[in-house]
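Chain X:
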Amino acid sequence: MSDFSTSCIAGTLSAVIFSAQFHGGGADAFGSPLTGGNGGDGGATLPVPAAYYIRPINDRIALGIGVSVPFGFQTEYDDRWVGRYQSVETKLQSPAVTFAGSWKV
């Protein structure tokens, strides 16, 4: 980072292609089988963005910041699937902000 003489900004966009299919069945509290299908493909194709900024302080020191989502997960099954009592839609995101510093010896 300390090799940069001016401020710099960079961004990336990746795609996560995820497939989640259920096979099996279930039973209620009394042991009776649950009705419903397998829910289809609960996975999705989602964008994963990231952005980074570097700011030189002088010719030897620079500071930087990065914003990204290194971990994430999302599923959505049909609302009549056999597992509908546990989950139909889930979404987990873990955004991260990272600070960095560089010193040229």
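Chain Y:
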Amino acid sequence: MVKKKACVFISGSGTNLKSIIKSSRDYNFPINIELVISNKKSAKGLNYAKKYSIPYRILACDRRKFEQGVLQLIFLKKIEIICLAGFMKILSKNFVRKFRGKILNIHPSLLPKFKGLNTFNRVLETNEKFSGCTVHFVNAKLDSGKIILQKKVKISKKDTPNKLAKKILIQEHKIYPRAIMKIISL
């Protein structure tokens, strides 16, 4: 099987990166992670890139310089798909346009509800019965791209923002690899 070359963008703990790396080690998984990019030097997820011997770059700079640097690396490595995994920086419309249909993101809500930040607090404040996570294509509008997969999670009366975040993160680790398989097999 010829795997597509992928790049994962992270800003934090990298648990979704780890999930994708583990899936990518399977012969039948359709991508190979060629590069990890972070906009933060302190991103703990960089440890997964090191552990699994995946090249990584830290580009902690303004958006214009970040995107210029990323474009050079992506073209150099012939990257075919970009996975945003806890990446907390908004990409420019021009960048997104260049990779239309090739950038995926995971968001901790059942989009189109609760786009943006502070998701868990907002979900609990509105007394939702369910929340969940969504893998979607990235477009020019925040958290508005075509939905690839979603997973619903029942909210308990005992849930706090932290408890809900942990429940949803477990599901994120499951659906991100499945979403990648789904779009590559299209």
